[in-house]
Amino acid sequence: MHDLTALILSASYVGILAIVFAETGLLVGFFLPGDSLLLAAGVLAANGDLNLGGVMGAVIVGAFLGCVVGYAIGQRFGRGVFSRQDSRFFKPEYITRAELFFQKYGWLAVVLARFVPVVRTLVPTMAGVSRMPLGPFNLYNILGAVLWGVSVPALGYYLGGLIPDLDRYILMIVGGVVVASVIPILVKVFQARRA
């Protein structure tokens, strides 16, 4: 946690924006500390080291812009990747499945993906691949960015004010949140494979 705290304090709001942008917009950003970053920044705001409004603003802008870039990448390059017949992981029929999925659940996927690590990195790109209309995508993108960018730092702020020395336990809390958010996805994947 000390390294994350030092990173946040040295990079400040621009660093938070850049990390959130990379995690939500670039496929290589899935390993970045999204939820732990937001919680830790909220705790630091509770300690008076950062301004909570500045943290929330940086997260919302970074998340929104990151998703726009992820969508553009998927729209520009995704179909070419999935059209190769020799690929084991990227098959043309996956485009059809993605299109049907985003027609049925697109708004929900874009909003709720914010709260699930790795999924928040993939959903914007897959929305672009499936050619989800850009207008609705951006509407749900901003809604998800605001919900995520306000609620998670606010939770860190609240807990940071409530529990002394919370920064010592933040990684355990984030681990619990990640496990709790991934379990429903794993259950759905397992059910789909059985079907």
How would you explain this protein's 3D organization?
It is found in: Cell membrane. Its main location: membrane. It is a multi-pass membrane protein. The chain has 195 residues and is an all-alpha fold. The chain has one domain (2-194). It has helices at 2-25, 34-46, 52-82, 92-112, 119-129, 134-162, 170-194. Helix 3 (52-82) packs across helix 6 (134-162) and helix 4 (92-112) packs across helix 5 (119-129). The longest helix has 31 residues, at 52-82. The protein is globular, with a radius of gyration of 18 Å. The termini are far apart. The mean pLDDT is 79.
Estimate nothing, just give the exact number of structural domains.
Answer: 1
Helical percentage = over 70%
In total, how many beta strands? 0
| Pattern of helices and strands | HHHHHHH
Largest sheet: none
Name the poorly predicted regions. none
β-sheet strand percentage: under 5%
Q: Which shape, going by the Cα principal axes?
A: globular
User: What is the CA–CA distance across the termini?
Assistant: 42 Å
Overall mean pLDDT stands at: 79
Helix count from the secondary structure assignment: 7
Structural class assignment: mainly alpha
Radius of gyration of CA atoms, rounded to a whole number: 18 Å
